[in-house]
Amino acid sequence: MRECGTGPYRRPGPRRYHSLNPTFPYSHIPLPSAYLFDLDGTLYQNNAAIPGAVDLIRRLKAQGTPCRFLTNTTSKPRSSIVTRLRGYGFPVENHEVFTALLAGAELARSLECRTLMPLVRSEALEDLKGFELLGGTAVWSRSPVGDPSLGTGAGSGPIYNPDAVVVGDLAEDWSFDLLQQGFTALRAGARLIALSRDRYWMTGRGLTIDAGPFVAALEYAAEVTSMVAGKPSAAFFDGAVESLHLAAGIPRDEIVMVGDDLRGDIEGAQAAGYTGYLVRTGKYQEGQLADLGIAPGRILESVAELL
User: Fold this and answer.
1) Topology classification of domain 3-72+232-305
2) With CB atoms counted within 10 Å of each terminal CB, which end of the chain scores lower, N or C?
3) Domain range summary for the chain, segments of one domain joined by +
């Protein structure tokens, strides 16, 4: 069994169980040693906390259960995400929140990249500090009004040669020009860092296309393969777990990822050796369980049913 943990701060102790009440459906399952939580669709949805989610996180923290919060959201910096969580009432600290954008920056550093072409919203660029940003949405952030039309047109304007192209969610701000800039840089030898390959996410208007299809378009056109920084990358899960400083010897499957995405949250966590619990909120779709053949450790109506 794969184990994890390098820190001295949490010692394995007697196994704790979900409930001493034998009628509780999971009373025979030991409580996990730590939890990783997805955010959008799991802890909150449509600009409000999932009912019972705030109380759950407070209870876990009160009993000393380690938690981390993982998100593939790339439209905002971590500071804004933490502010949003606190606004809903969640007791979270900056260091507890792991974002795909910060993971992408760490991946770029490990590859010794110094220059990046960001294809993420300009308000999120603060999490790419330390890099020289060339073209892409960095052009918007330097323009007087942040106008997406001020980029370079295909075949005209400056040619950028970054070390890597970093792709996140731009929603309605995607344009042919931005894709062309990324394509040109990739053909010239830049690496492709995908902050996520999520196909879609749940918004107030229903399922909405996410960054994954645009990553796939650039891969196909430039004949390259992306490196994924966020979920379902095993390195993303591992980075969050390592920050918990769990005692050595705790089996990986005692660490649980809770999320609404069968592929990114559940399958990704399981592939990294962790356990995945699926919630029937957010982007969850009933038919996927049979269609994808992914078996979560538990299926919850919402995160409020966790304990």
Assistant:
1) Rossmann fold (3.40.50)
2) N
3) 3-72+232-305, 115-227
